[in-house]
Structures are given as structure tokens and as C-alpha cells.
Amino acid sequence: MRFNQYRTKVQSLLREHVPSDIPVDVDRVARQFGVVEIEPRIMSIDGYLGRRDDGELVIRFNEESGAARCRFTIAHEVAHVLFGIVHGKAVKAPAARGATRDDYEEWWANRVAAEILLPETALMADLRRKPASSWRTVRQLSYRYGVSIAALARRLRELPEVAAVQLRIIGKVGSTATSWSVWGSDWARFYLADAPVHEANRIIRESGYTTSHAVGIELDGQRTMITCEGARRHGEGSDTVYDAIGWTISPESGMEISRREKPAVQVV
């Protein structure tokens, strides 16, 4: 059985044990699920879930990581506890984040960690108060929830009432793209309405005079236009890394059509 088949049970557990305050007190959540110690350590990995000699669960995390990464690591290890609960299995410990684990369980833990730190109800309420999608909104919300910008952007693509797209284009501003990646909402079959190469070249050309880009997407065959905001990052040589993000929120509840087990990604 895959993630979507367990999602209702996971959400029920999170509603019961995750406090409503934002940012979420992730240490408190861990203790709600039986973790008795959460401590920083000097280590070469992000963290791990282990057991003391008396069998009690502990979480250790890399003390040299930033605050947002530490919070996500703790939530990730809590998600491994949840994995055992909903699958009716003993919790695997010790187990290290960053070490080799089952790929599906790792993906599952990252997904649940995002649900712990970025609760859907609270995040949707915040998104509905924002007039338009922008990197400023992403930064503000990542600070409010105590997560990284990357985690917040990824979470947007998981929300069933949000149609989202993110592009990373490498190329010469105002000219042509040399490579690109595209990520879209993962709750439906996602495609760019136009060929990725055409969109990447159009957006990098437009970036010479604007940071606002209209991008057409298809979700389960339904086409919509999303206004994305672009931002330049440092690149190598004469190339620039240009990130564009955008989303739109359904005016109706129940926008969800179907769910994919893993994110749709177009990469060239």
C-alpha cells in the first residue's frame, strides 16, 4: 500500500498530536509520538532516529545545520515513527537521515515532515490572504513556519487546492537557455502547456526586461495560466540561474482531481 492509502490515517494522527500554533513546536510533536530525547550532536549526517539502552526512542541532529534544516530533520525522524505506526511495524532504529534507506520510506518521511511543519489548513489560510504568488510571499511564509524556502516551495506543489509550477533556468539573461528543470503540482498529471524548451527560452529572454511571466500548465488535462515571478541567482561564467515560481488557488473547495505517488518533474 502506498502513501495515498495511508494519508487519511496520517492526517488524523497529525490533527490529534500536532499543536495548532505556528511555527509548529516540532520537539513537542516528537514527544507526542514517544521520542524522549532530542539533542544536537557533531556528525557528518543530518540526523538519526535511535534507541537508548532502555529501548526509548531518541533523535539526534547535526548541530552545525541551520535552524530550518534542524527542524526538518527532527520532523523527518518523527515521520519514520509514524511510518511504523501506520504500517503496523516496529519502528526501525537506529536509522540515519542521509544514510542509505528504503527510497520509498525516505520519500514518505520527507512528505510527512512537510505536513507536520506546514499544516495544510494553516498554510492554505495564509495563502488565501496573499494577493499574488511571489518570491516575497515564499520568503515570508518560510520564515513564519520555520522552514527553508525550498521546503515551502515544494509544499506548495503538494496542496490539492493549489495549482503550482516552478522553473529553474540556466542561461544568458535576455538570450537563450542552456538547461532547465520544471516542477509542478504532484496531486495530478502535470505538464507544461508548451514544450519545456520553448518556455525556458521564452522566460530567459523575457527576464531581460521583466520578472513577471505567464506560464500555461495542464493538470489532468485542464489548462490554466499561472503568473510566475522570476528571480536571478548567481551562475557560473556568463550564465545566470533564473528561478521562477507561481501558483493559483482554486476558488472552490474540492479542487483535488487525483493524486500521484511521486512528484511530476520535467528535467533536461
Number of helices: 8
Distance between the termini: 31 Å
Strand content of the residues, in percent? 25-35%
User: What is the global morphology?
Assistant: globular
Spans where pLDDT lies below 50 across 5 or more residues: 252-268
Please characterize this protein's 3D structure.
With 268 residues, the protein is an alpha+beta fold. The protein has two domains: 3-117, Arc Repressor Mutant, subunit A, CATH 1.10.10.2910; 121-249. The chain has helices at residues 3-17, 26-32, 67-87, 103-117, 120-128, 135-145, 149-156, 196-206; strands at residues 35-41, 47-51, 57-62, 95-97, 162-171, 177-184, 190-192, 212-219, 222-233, 240-249, 265-267. The strands form two sheets. It has a seven-stranded antiparallel beta sheet with strand order 7-8-9-10-5-6-11. The protein has a four-stranded mixed beta sheet with strand order 1-3-2-4, with helices on one face. It is globular, with a radius of gyration of 20 Å. The two termini are 31 Å apart. Mean pLDDT is 86; it is low at 252-268.
Can you give me a brief rundown of this structure?
The protein has 268 residues and is an alpha+beta fold. It is built from eight helices and eleven strands.
